[in-house]
């Protein structure tokens, strides 16, 4: 896949053919993986036998009941979720990305592994959100809202996608660019000052949830603070500021760049601003951060020679893949 991205120029029949073929392979990879090969499949196998509607989405309950009636084999649960998640995700990538093979490479290296291969309910909701972004970029907010509701139906965390409903895709002024960059600086300042505004929220339900997270952290069930200075994250922050610097050139070629930058700002800010609550920070960062597979290929319009920009993103993808396969051990038999 890395080899072919160096020859991708436009969405011609050959590029589209390879794109569809690679997507089919990924769909089969996610649908037919052995149970136990990833962190969550055994949990889903347990839920398949012991599903309880009161703590999980109704969509999951219905799909489990369908599999019980038609197939009586838990493997079909993963097949159905793969067929639901990957095609809609691929459609969104095709509509949004200027370089579909490069987006596919970035997706496979990270988000495919942590979502479509592992967190299968989240994967469907993100795929639906991607399709919604196509309409939000055209200011069709009602259609975007519809796809967000569908996304929430498949995973409750997709409620976070209601926030972009209030984002404008109008080109940013210089003040607007400074404001977006200032958000990242501000959350880092709060981090250094050890100020946690979220914990101080005077909302009873939120306070109960946050207290639960803190108890889990104290008991060792949930990890300690995440590293907001890890190399991969700092590279993402650096690219975000580079995009703001090159924004004028970027938005001429990619009208949706404004919307994507605002969403990506939410991803970076949540990771730092919620660092004291690792589960929440990681989940929200991933929910919004998946737009980088569309945003990062836009880098090629700002770098010459073109091959250097492609090489930079291929190395980044390799770093993510290595991190997920060997360090995080997302695939247990590697």
Tell me what the structure shows:
With 334 residues, the chain is an all-alpha fold. 68% of the residues lie in helices and 0% in strands. The chain has 16 helices and no strands. It has helices spanning 2-5, 13-31, 41-49, 58-70, 75-96, 100-116, 120-137, 141-154, 174-192, 204-219, 231-245, 247-253, 257-273, 278-289, 292-295, 306-327. The protein starts with a helix and ends in a 7-residue tail after the last helix. The mean pLDDT is 87.
Key descriptive features of the protein:
334 residues; mainly alpha; 16 helices; 68% helix; globular
Give a short summary of the structure.
Helix content is 68%, strand content 0%. Helix 2 (13-31) packs antiparallel against helix 5 (75-96) and helix 2 packs parallel to helix 6 (100-116).
Largest sheet: none
Low-confidence stretches: none
Helix-strand topology string: HHHHHHHHHHHHHHHH
Mean pLDDT: 87
Radius of gyration: 20 Å
Q: How many H/I helical runs?
A: 16
Give the number of DSSP strands.
0
Helix content: 55-70%
The percent range for strand residues is under 5%
Quote the distance from N terminus to C terminus: 20 Å
> Structural class of the helices, strands and pairings?
mainly alpha
Shape: globular
């Amino acid at each position: 896949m890395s080899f072919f991205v160096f020859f991708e120029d436009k969405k011609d029949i050959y590029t589209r053919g390879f794109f569809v073929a690679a997507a089919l392979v990924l769909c089969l990879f996610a649908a037919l993986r052995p149970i136990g090969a990833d962190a969550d499949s055994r949990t889903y196998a347990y839920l398949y036998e012991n599903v309880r509607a009161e703590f999980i989405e109704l969509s999951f309950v219905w799909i489990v009941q369908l599999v019980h009636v038609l197939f009586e084999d838990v493997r079909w649960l993963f097949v159905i979720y793969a067929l639901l998640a990957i095609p809609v995700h691929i459609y969104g990538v095709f509509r949004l990305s200027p370089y579909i093979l490069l987006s596919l490479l970035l997706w496979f290296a990270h988000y495919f592994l942590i979502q479509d291969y592992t967190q299968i309910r989240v994967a469907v909701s993100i795929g639906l959100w991607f399709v919604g972004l196509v309409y939000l970029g055209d200011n069709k907010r009602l259609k975007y809202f519809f796809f967000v509701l569908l996304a929430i139906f498949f995973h409750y965390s997709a409620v976070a996608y209601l926030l972009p409903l209030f984002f404008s895709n109008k080109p940013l002024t210089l003040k607007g660019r400074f404001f977006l960059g200032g958000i990242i600086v501000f959350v880092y300042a709060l981090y250094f000052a050890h100020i946690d505004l979220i914990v101080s929220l005077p909302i009873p339900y939120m306070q109960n949830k946050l207290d639960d997270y803190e108890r889990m952290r104290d008991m060792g069930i949930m990890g300690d603070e995440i590293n907001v200075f890890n190399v991969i994250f700092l590279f993402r922050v650096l690219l975000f500021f580079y995009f703001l610097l090159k924004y004028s050139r970027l938005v001429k070629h990619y009208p949706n760049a404004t919307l994507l930058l605002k969403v990506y700002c939410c991803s970076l800010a949540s990771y730092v601003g919620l660092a004291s609550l690792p589960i929440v920070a990681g989940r929200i960062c991933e929910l919004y951060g998946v737009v980088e597979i569309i945003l990062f290929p836009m880098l090629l319009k700002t770098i010459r020679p073109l091959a250097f920009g492609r090489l930079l993103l291929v190395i980044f993808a390799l770093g993510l893949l290595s991190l997920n396969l060997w360090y995080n051990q997302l695939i247990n038999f590697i």
